[in-house]
Design goal:
Helix content: 40-55%
Bound molecules: 3-phosphoglyceric acid
Shape: globular
Structural class: alpha/beta
Number of helices: 10
Largest sheet: 4 strands, parallel
Number of strands: 9
Strand order of the largest sheet: 3-2-1-9
């Protein structure tokens, strides 16, 4: 059986979501995140060189690197070949799920409704991304969706910042929280790796009880 996301994350509860336009940033970014205490990261496939970014960040060795914004089976294949240890998608696509299962990596589909969650369960998934978490009602929606599905673990992502982090993580159904705020394209653009380490350290502190 495939490992689940919980196995791969091994207790990490902060999932920095990264969009990295220039692969030259990948290595210093990995270093900055690791220095701040992050243990994992999700590289979104929203940039042409995302595969190279995954490769370089995985080669750093200090982070568990996954791929995000995976929309097609082909992207999942390329991500895993580049070294992604898990796959995240904004929505639920049966072919992406099947491909990840064949590749032996955990896949975390995005869901926003009970119907989508039931489709995920039927496909054998028990960990989902609640997306876009804040826009669909935040904690209230998370609690309401978690109630009928006590075995499901959630990775809420979307619109979550440092002030909301601890509230989400206090929910028993929440495995980890995703967010782009610790390392944004604007940080990368100005080479602000110290800022990334600082925001990451602050988030790690907030996510540790
Ligand atoms: C994602 O792809 O998971 C989101 O874009 C991250 O959401 P955020 O930028 O609102 O943190």
């Amino acid at each position: 059986m495939n490992p689940g996301l919980a196995d791969v994350l091994a207790g990490a509860r902060l999932l920095p979501v990264l969009t990295v336009p220039d692969p030259a940033s990948a290595r210093p970014l990995a270093e900055a995140l690791a220095t701040g205490g992050a243990r994992c990261a999700e590289v979104t496939f929203r940039t042409p060189d995302a595969e190279q970014v995954v490769k370089a960040m995985a080669a750093h060795g200090g982070l568990i690197v996954g791929a995000g914004t995976i929309l097609t089976p082909e992207q999942a294949e390329r991500a895993v070949a580049a070294g992604a240890r898990f796959v995240v998608s904004p929505g639920l696509d049966d072919e992406v799920l099947a491909t990840c299962r064949e590749l032996g990596v955990p896949v975390v589909p995005g869901i926003a409704t009970a119907t989508e969650l039931m489709r995920a369960l039927r496909a054998g998934i028990d960990t989902v991304k609640l997306f876009p978490a804040e826009a669909i009602g935040g904690l209230r929606t998370l609690r309401a969706l978690a109630a009928p599905f006590p075995h499901v673990r959630f990775v809420p992502t979307g619109g979550i910042g440092p002030d909301l982090l601890a509230g989400y993580l206090a929910e028993p159904a929440v495995l980890a929280v995703g967010g782009s705020w610790p390392a944004t394209p604007a940080h990368l653009d100005r080479g602000d790796y110290a800022g990334i380490s600082r925001l990451t350290a602050d988030a790690v502190k907030r996510s540790t009880p």
